[in-house]
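> example.struct
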C-alpha cells in the first residue's frame, strides 16, 4: 500500500483542490484550530490560578489539537499531490500560480503551527519542572493565538475564494 493511500484513508474527509466548492475539509481544520485556542486559554487561566496539573493537561490538549491540525493539513497536501497539484502545476488547467500560492501560504502557516507545538512542549516541560512560570505559559499562548488569527485570514483567502 502506498504511503499516499494510507494518509488518504486516515481521515474520511475529502480534500478538495483550491477554489473548489467543497469547504468541509477546511472547515474541519478551522474548528480544530479554534478549539485549540480555547484549550490554550484554559491552560493560561489554570497556570495563573496556580493549578499546575490542570495547566499541563490543557497544554497537552493544545499540542494534540495542533498536531491533529498538522496531520489534517499534510493529508490534504498528499491528496492534492496525488491529484496532480504541484507548486507550479494546476491540473484544472488554470494558472499554475494557484498551486504555488496554496502550497506557499499554507506551508508557511503549517510551519508556524509545528513550531508552536514544539515550543508549547518545551514550555510545558519547563513549567512542570519549575523552571518556567505562568508568564511563560501566557507568552506561548499569545504566540498560539497569533497562529490561529493568521489562519482566520488564510482560510477565507485560500479556501473560500475561487482561485481558478
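> example.seq
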Amino acid at each position: 500500500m502506498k504511503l499516499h493511500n494510507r494518509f488518504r484513508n486516515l481521515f474520511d474527509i475529502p480534500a478538495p483542490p483550491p477554489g473548489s466548492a467543497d469547504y468541509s475539509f477546511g472547515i474541519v481544520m478551522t474548528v480544530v484550530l479554534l478549539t485549540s485556542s480555547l484549550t490554550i486559554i484554559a491552560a493560561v487561566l489554570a497556570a495563573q490560578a496556580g493549578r499546575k496539573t490542570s495547566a499541563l493537561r490543557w497544554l497537552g490538549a493544545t499540542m494534540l489539537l495542533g498536531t491533529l491540525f498538522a496531520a489534517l493539513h499534510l493529508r490534504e497536501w498528499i491528496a492534492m499531490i496525488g491529484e496532480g497539484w504541484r507548486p507550479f502545476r494546476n491540473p484544472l488547467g488554470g494558472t499554475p500560480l494557484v498551486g504555488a500560492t496554496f502550497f506557499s501560504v499554507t506551508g508557511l502557516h503549517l510551519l508556524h503551527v509545528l513550531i508552536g507545538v514544539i515550543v508549547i512542549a518545551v514550555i510545558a516541560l519547563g513549567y512542570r519542572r519549575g523552571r518556567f512560570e505562568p508568564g511563560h505559559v501566557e507568552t506561548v499562548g499569545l504566540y498560539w493565538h497569533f497562529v490561529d488569527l493568521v489562519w482566520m485570514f488564510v482560510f477565507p483567502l485560500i479556501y473560500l475564494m475561487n482561485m481558478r
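> remarks
The mean pLDDT is 87.
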